[in-house]
Amino acid sequence: MSGPAPSPLPSAKPKASSGRNWLKGGAQYGFALMVGIVSLLLTLGVWQWLVLGQSRSTETEFTLEAEQRAEGIKRQFFSETSVMRALLGYYRASQNVAPEEFRAFAKVYLTGLSSLDSVQWAPHVPGGERRDWEESSAAFRFTQADAHGMAVQAERRGSYFPVVYAESAMDGTPEMLGFDWGSDPFARAAMMAARDSGEINAAAHIRLPPMADDTPRIALFAPVYDGGEQVAVDQRRKHLKGFVVAVLRIGDVVQGAIDLMPRKGVDLYLLDSSAPAAQRVLLSIMAPGSKAKRKPGAGPAMDSGLFHSSSLVIGNSVFTIYTAATDAYGDRRAATTPAIALAGGLAVTLILFIYLVSLANQRARTEQVVAQRTAELRGVNMRLEERTIQLEESETELRAAKNRAEEATRAKSQFLANMSHEIRTPMNGVIGASELLSDTRLNASQREYLAMITQSADALLHLINDILDFSKIEAGRLELEHVAFSLRDELADTLQAFAGRATEKGIELACHVALDVPDALEGDPHRLRQVVINLVGNALRFTERGEVVMDVAVERMEDQQVRLRFAVSDTGPGIAADKRKLIFEAFSQADTSFTRRFGGTGLGLTIASQLVQLMGGRLELDSSVGRGSVFHFTIAFALAQGEPAHPPAEQPSLHGLPVLIVDDNATNRRILDEIIRGWGMKPLAVESGPKALAALRNAAGIGRPLRLVLLDMMMPDMDGFAVAKEIARSGGDERPAVIMLSSAQKDEMARRNWATGIAAFLLKPVRQSELLEAIFAVLKVTVREETAPPEPAPHDRPSLHVLVAEDNAVNQRLALRLLEKRGHRVKIVGDGAQAVEALAQDSFDVVLMDVQMPEMDGFQATAAIRERERGTGQHMPIVAMTAHAMRGDRERCLAAGMDDYISKPLRAEDFYEVVEGRFASAAKPHSEEGSGP
After folding, report:
1. What is the pLDDT of residues 323-348, one digit of tens each?
2. Which position has the higher pLDDT, 113 or 875?
3. pLDDT score for 260
């Protein structure tokens, strides 16, 4: 084999150049020759090293094989002793083992273990009890084996160990029965050692009466004691009950372990280390063609160059597994590796020499290719530089586009803020004027028109809030509060706002909060209320009959945190599977046709879902068409400071009080039953008026009259008023107190209470605190818990002198009417400059400052007032009164020096709470002559 011929030299070059090329090529070939010689020398050295290492490798390989073979034999021995451990556990678990039980138990192992010769039970029989044993059965005699292996009568000894139960894989079990293991010196020594140690022990060289062949066997003895395990040696000797015995064929055990291992050229011996030299060999397995055939007892050949020994320990008995290599072992491992290495090295040397010659010829061509590739790389580098310039230009354009997008976002936020202010300002006048008008004397038509105005204004305000909330969430500018609140009161207040809608549609609205749910929590009650309003409002809108139920339960309770599961279920039409994802998308509804029956912006569920995500949960839907829907989510809340995880709900003063619950709705009955039981009372729930009257008569007839009736107003056939009327007719001192529960308005119910004798009316879903207070009130029971001091009456509040800075005429009149209605004196100014001037001329208790006003706005006016106060040390309370409701507006007002914040449209209760709640206690007395409005 030869490399490619060198390229011919160009004829145009001079002879001197040709000579130089020849010398250069000769140097290249000389290098190839030198490398070939070095490679040949290395090959010879490696071959000699491999020859020397072959013997060491053979010895190591033999040792590993011998250790693996010895470990396999040990595992086989311990595997075969599984019957001993099983029978030992059987005897420890049962005081008496019948022959049938022993036979059935042993047969399983005799069929599964090929080397198991027999399994026996040999009890410990003291010498004085031998006669009793033999007389108990005519066929049972104590025997021993003579010199020929025949069974003869046993000699007299101090104790015996006769075979009572025996099962064998072969015939011969009857001859074993009665055989005294104590007559065999090897077996007796092993049994005494097992008795004292409490462990399984072994004995070789044993002979049973039916053993007619020379197959070497080994007996395993496991001691059994009375009363379970014994610790001390003297206790073991005293409580010995007998031995479980297993006889193994040694050849089968060893052969089963080494059948899968190649043993050509290897002799194997099993030695008894404790036996005399003549009896030391228990088993010998010679390699095929071995020159030194050995039988058990003949002694192994110790002249082998390679041998290995390993100990097999069974209790106090030690056996040796001896392995010796024969000449055939070395022949099988002839020194082929060095020869292969030599041939391979020569081949590599030749190939390397040829390769170097070829490499010298291709070097020139390689240099040409490198030059060509270098030129190509220069072109690629130029194109990369051009691409880099283009990327930099693209990055500049992207940065400009990002800036434009951010500017658009800021413009959008500013637009939303301005729109919020501009829409809320007239809405403030509409809602405020409606509230003031509702306090005047109106006829039925006028009150109906006023209700239409109020509902339309509330709907428009709700729409505005939905759009603003969605924009805040979309821009990532919505923040959560972390304040303390009462969960049950918050949910009851929220759901009671829907009571009128539920009554109009004939739908039952219920709220169930499990008893183990903590009430005092810390979180954002406003956002929780917003989620509940959206879910319950949707359920009521789409449900035509049946019920809408709010359910709250504990999902997980930790040290200072609880994760609650909220679920709103309805009996509406349900939602198809292909529409479930759509309803959570913005401005989408399950029904998008122009003639859809239900309105709405399609933002409610989107806002609810994103609010739940902000609070660490996920809003999910389970629904089936025609069966209703269940919206559920989980939110974690912190426990309020000092609030136990499970506050006691039982009221001692009501313990054992019998209460009748009357409601046609099963959900309401279940909720009221759970609440009443939680307070320690004994409820009885019925679903109709006739059953309620029957229950009252039955209770009175047995002398256990019911003291309280919780009565639903809206029931078919016989409503709550009819039931209450029948109860009132019964008369007597034992007549129960009646509390009416209904989704109708209280004033509508109160118009009929004169004819029914109803003690109290509560709006459904009922607040637990209101229900408990009503029960205490109608039963005239004193509450043991501390109660808060009563709120001062309106005439006890001090009159405030209030300065209102507002540029809108409608809002000026609204603020004036709201404040004068509560007995406060008011001065109205149109901008910030007039407010600063009014404060310089007169004294006021509080200033209501609009933020957006002409000439001087609220922020500028506040800054001027605070600057003037620095020299006097005084502080005038200033409350921002603005239609700005975006995130950060409250913080901006407080940072500008204002003391509080009221968002428009004004709600009377919120307005009074801020103005009177914070500043009434610090009000100064003013005379009517001191200053005018």
Report:
1. 887 777 766 555 566 777 778 878 88
2. 875
3. 56
Q: Which two tokens stand for residue 76?
A: 């086989």
Instruction: Read off the amino acid at residue 719.
Output: D
Pick the CATH number of 801-918 from 3.60.90.10, 2.30.30.100, 3.40.50.2300, 3.90.25.10: 3.40.50.2300
Write the DSSP symbol of residue 616.
Answer: T
Q: Could you tell me where the DSSP H helices lie in 760-888?
A: 768-779, 809-821, 832-841, 858-872
Range with the poorest average pLDDT among 157-166, 276-285, 802-811:
276-285
User: How large is the angle between the packed helices 525-542 and 487-496, nearest 10 degrees?
Assistant: 40
Neighbours of 792 (CB within 10 A): 9
Query: Which residue type is seen at 226?
Result: D
The tokens of 502 are what? Answer: 């539920």
Residue 460 CB burial class (10 angstroms; 0-12, 13-18, ≥19): middle
User: pLDDT value at position 336?
Assistant: 67
Report whether pLDDT(295) > 60.
no
Domain ranges of the chain: 82-257, 483-639, 658-779, 801-918
- 51, 41, 1, 39: which is closest to 340 by C-alpha? 51
Q: What's the pLDDT score for residue 470?
A: 60
Report whether pLDDT(265) > 60: yes
Average pLDDT, the chain: 77
Confidence of residue 569 (pLDDT cuts 50, 70, 90): very high
pTM over 0.90: no
- Residues written for the chain: 933
Cα dist. 901→855, 892, 913, 918 in Å?
Answer: 22, 10, 12, 12
- Burial class of residue 701 (count of CB atoms within 10 Å of its CB; 0-12, 13-18, 19+): exposed
> Model confidence over 761-815: pLDDT tens digits?
888 888 888 888 888 888 876 444 433 444 444 555 678 888 999 887 777 888 8
The Cα 436–Cα 428 span in angstroms is 12
Peptide bond before 648: cis, by omega within 30 degrees of 0?
no
- pLDDT, average across residues 718-733: 82
The residue whose two tokens read 């507006």 is 889
Instruction: Note whether 119 and 110 are within 8 A (CB).
Output: yes
The CATH class that applies to domain 483-639 reads alpha beta
Positive or negative, the CA dihedral 907, 505, 464, 886 is: positive
Q: What are phi and psi of 715, to 5 degrees?
A: -135, 145
> Does residue 17 carry a pLDDT above 50?
no
Cis peptide before 765 (omega within 30 of 0): yes
Q: Which CATH architecture has domain 82-257?
A: 2-Layer Sandwich (3.30)
Instruction: Enter the DSSP assignment of 778.
Output: H
Same fold, 82-257 and 658-779: no
In the chain, what is the greatest distance between 2 CA atoms, to the nearest angstrom?
147
Q: What angle do CA 891, 895, 896 make, to 5 degrees?
A: 120
Homologous superfamily, domain 658-779: Response regulator (3.40.50.2300)
Q: Which single residue is written with the structure tokens 């709010």?
A: 550
Cα 350 to Cα 2, 217, 353, 357, distances in angstroms: 10, 64, 5, 11
Task: Determine which helix (DSSP H) or strand (DSSP E) holds 686, and give its type and residue range.
Answer: strand 682-686
Which among 534, 537, 561 has a CA at the least distance from the CA of 634?
561
- Rounded to whole angstroms, how far apart are CA atoms 705 and 606? 53
CA–CA separation, 702 vs 684, rounded Å?
A: 15
CB of 265 within 8 A of CB of 305? no
β-pair type (658-662, 628-639): unpaired
Q: What is the DSSP letter of 289?
A: T
Q: pLDDT of 845-873, one tens digit each?
A: 889 888 888 888 888 999 989 888 887 87
CA distances from 879 to 412, 752, 792, 817, 916 (A): 28, 45, 23, 18, 12
- Report the candidate in 87, 131, 104, 108 with the shortest Cα–Cα distance to residue 241: 87
